[in-house]
């Protein structure tokens, strides 16, 4: 026996390749061999940017005493959750059923057949050894008790994935108002987000609340979302120096983040901030988009034109030791050496170099703006436009200084679903900023998704070293379809629509469960079937597929697609008791009402198409010269612009300003 991770592609697995633990990668051959040995399994799941995964590795998995116990009595698997999200989801459901909590590292002890029977997140060394020894003794002396418990737990996991029971097909009335009223009680109306810590951005929540607020002229909701976006942008969570958001804030002020930066967060926030800028023309929102695009292009772009997964929370400090957030925080001495004395008082107020911005754990400051620049300028009797210039100069100065530091550890695998979300984010960003670099990145990323990671009629899930090494799952198909529908909307290039249509048919073949009426997460089910229904930090892939089915069905007059989309959404809506976990489904509900509209164009210029796309962030746009079934009735259109919904048209005009 030996540690088998050395030939892995995943940076997370490679981090563990020198551990004394005899780690094995998760594959069918190893799973079958493990079962034949009749030893308990340790299934340890994490990801490269996970801080507590590093802590447990250092304390436990690098330790010879721990390794001796694991190697003697267990078969140990190490899994990158981003490579195998369906496996992670299955064992996370088990952990949540056992402990009512979740997180990473996710550590499961399972029977030789893979059925889970114990689980935890981070566990200290002495406790880890003690638990493993006890479980081994119990398995040797009373294995029947373990098998009995594991079977009962498996029944619970199966029930949690029985969508027919949880979301019955019988039609149930849905009333959004009481759901919204209850949801609003959790809003933090002073600092944005929810009244709790840690604070996650929950972008899909913000997107629904904002779209609903704009459609229904609900200023309470739009003001709340704009407040949240403003406070998030003020620093700490958002890297004001270089751009890009960390995964979440550990405090209620959005000040001290858990410093890892994930591609999926930043991709989604490009959409949110772009739409907010279109609605408000708030320059802060545009600045966030510009900085985030710049950060992604400068740090995560691979030579293949795909984009990397994440930056780690940890980076090397001045003592050349890994420390959480070391790349991002500043000592007061460092800042005083960089900022001139005559600007220091202003700098201190802008970036909270005081008790507000102080981080005790690092004995340093994380740049954090408490008030808006107008308020700070007034306090100092200073011109606000000059203060904006000063702030930009300070940020450039800090960036040049930071470039001398060692960047955080990079997870350089390329996840297809996250890259598809990034394409959506880039398309939204292009509506409000012009950049030749952004245009090139969009063109190259489009080619990457359509021709490099889609091979032999199969979409990949993870790409590295010029190859897909894991096949695509539902999430990859769902977000790629969505991004190419949006790409078609912007370009009116029919090949993008046809690609989305083709992927939709394939997703139905690969993942749709006709009995349950939903899409399973993965085609390869090594343990059990998982149906991802609720939103998390990434929207539910089933909700995204439901919307895709509607749009493809609408454009190609495919009644089955449209009916399936509506059935999926209606079943979910009938069982919602809190909105935050189902906001993508609630967004879907908007398209089944008169809020759904599309714009048919006749003979418009490229400039007019760009304007229409910006003005109509939530609408389908169609050039009536295209050969698409839905346009058969519009070939005789005499006006340049016609706005319609499923039942009728409400406006026909030649003047773009009327839209």
Automatic annotation (TrEMBL):
Pfam families found in the cross-reference section:
Thioredox_DsbH
InterPro entries associated with the record: 6-hairpin_glycosidase_sf (IPR008928), 6hp_glycosidase-like_sf (IPR012341), Ssp411 (IPR024705), Ssp411-like_TRX (IPR004879), Thioredoxin-like_sf (IPR036249)
Using the record's annotation, list all stretches that form the Spermatogenesis-associated protein 20-like TRX domain. 3-155
Q: Which domain of life is it from?
A: Bacteria
| BP terms from Gene Ontology | carbohydrate metabolic process
Question: What is the protein name given in its UniProt record?
Answer: Thioredoxin domain-containing protein
Tell me what organism the protein belongs to: Paenimyroides baculatum
- The organism's taxonomic lineage, starting at the top: Bacteria, Pseudomonadati, Bacteroidota, Flavobacteriia, Flavobacteriales
């Amino acid at each position: 026996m030996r540690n088998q991770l050395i030939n892995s592609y995943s940076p997370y697995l490679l981090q563990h390749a020198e551990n004394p633990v005899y780690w094995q990668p998760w594959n069918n051959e190893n799973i079958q061999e493990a079962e034949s040995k009749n030893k308990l399994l340790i299934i340890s799941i994490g990801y490269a940017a996970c801080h507590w995964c590093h802590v447990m590795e250092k304390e436990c998995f690098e330790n010879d005493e721990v390794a001796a116990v694991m190697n003697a009595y267990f078969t140990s698997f190490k899994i990158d959750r981003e490579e195998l999200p369906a496996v992670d989801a299955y064992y996370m459901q088990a952990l949540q059923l056992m402990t009512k909590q979740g997180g990473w590292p996710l550590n499961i002890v399972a029977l030789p057949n893979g059925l889970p029977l114990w689980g935890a997140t981070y566990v200290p060394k002495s406790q880890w050894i003690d638990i493993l020894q006890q479980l081994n003794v119990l398995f040797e002396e009373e294995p029947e008790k373990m098998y009995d418990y594991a079977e009962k737990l498996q029944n619970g996991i199966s029930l949690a994935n029985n969508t027919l029971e949880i979301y019955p097909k019988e039609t149930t009335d849905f009333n959004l108002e009481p759901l919204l009223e209850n949801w609003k009680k959790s809003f933090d109306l002073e600092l944005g987000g929810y009244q709790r810590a840690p604070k996650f951005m929950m972008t899909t929540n913000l997107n629904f609340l904002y779209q609903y607020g704009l459609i229904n002229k609900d200023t309470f909701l739009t003001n709340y979302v704009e407040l949240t976006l403003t406070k998030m942008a003020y620093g700490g969570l958002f890297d004001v120096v270089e751009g890009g958001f960390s995964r979440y804030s550990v405090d209620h002020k959005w000040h001290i983040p858990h410093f890892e930066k994930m591609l999926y967060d930043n991709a989604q926030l490009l959409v949110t901030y772009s739409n907010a800028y279109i609605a408000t023309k708030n320059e802060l929102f545009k600045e966030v988009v510009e900085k985030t695009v710049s950060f992604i292009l400068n740090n995560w772009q691979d030579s293949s034109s795909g984009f990397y997964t994440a930056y780690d929370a940890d980076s090397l400090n001045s003592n050349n030791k890994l420390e959480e957030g070391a790349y991002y925080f500043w000592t007061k001495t460092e800042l005083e050496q960089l900022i001139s004395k005559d600007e220091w008082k202003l700098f201190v107020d802008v970036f909270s170099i005081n008790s507000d911005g102080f981080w005790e754990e690092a004995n340093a400051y994380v740049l954090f703006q408490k008030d808006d620049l107008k308020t700070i300028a007034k306090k100092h009797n200073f011109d606000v436009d000059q203060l904006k210039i000063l702030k930009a100069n300070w940020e450039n100065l800090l960036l040049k200084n930071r470039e001398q530091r060692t960047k955080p550890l990079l997870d350089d695998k390329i996840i297809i679903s996250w890259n598809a979300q990034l394409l959506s984010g880039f398309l939204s960003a292009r509506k409000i900023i012009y950049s030749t670099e952004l245009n090139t990145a969009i063109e190259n990323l489009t080619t990457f998704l359509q021709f490099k990671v889609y091979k032999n009629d199969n979409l990949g899930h993870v790409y590295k070293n010029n190859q897909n090494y894991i096949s695509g799952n539902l999430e990859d198909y769902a977000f790629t379809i969505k991004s190419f529908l949006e790409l078609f909307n912007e370009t009116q290039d029919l090949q993008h629509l046809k690609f989305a249509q083709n992927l939709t048919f394939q997703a139905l073949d690969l993942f749709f469960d006709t009995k349950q009426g939903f899409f399973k997460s993965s085609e390869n089910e090594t343990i059990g079937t998982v149906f991802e229904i609720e939103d998390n930090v990434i929207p539910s892939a089933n909700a995204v597929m439901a919307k895709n089915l509607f749009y493809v069905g609408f454009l190609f007059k495919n009644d089955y697609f449209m009916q399936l989309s509506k059935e999926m959404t209606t079943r979910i809506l009938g069982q919602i008791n809190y909105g935050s976990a189902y906001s993508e489904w609630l967004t879907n509900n908007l398209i089944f009402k008169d809020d759904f509209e599309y714009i048919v164009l006749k003979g418009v210029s490229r400039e007019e198409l760009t304007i229409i796309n910006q003005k109509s962030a939530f609408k389908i746009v169609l050039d009536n010269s295209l050969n698409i079934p839905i346009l058969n009735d519009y070939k005789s259109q005499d006006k340049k612009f016609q706005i319609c919904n499923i039942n009728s048209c409400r406006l026909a005009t030649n003047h773009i300003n009327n839209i």
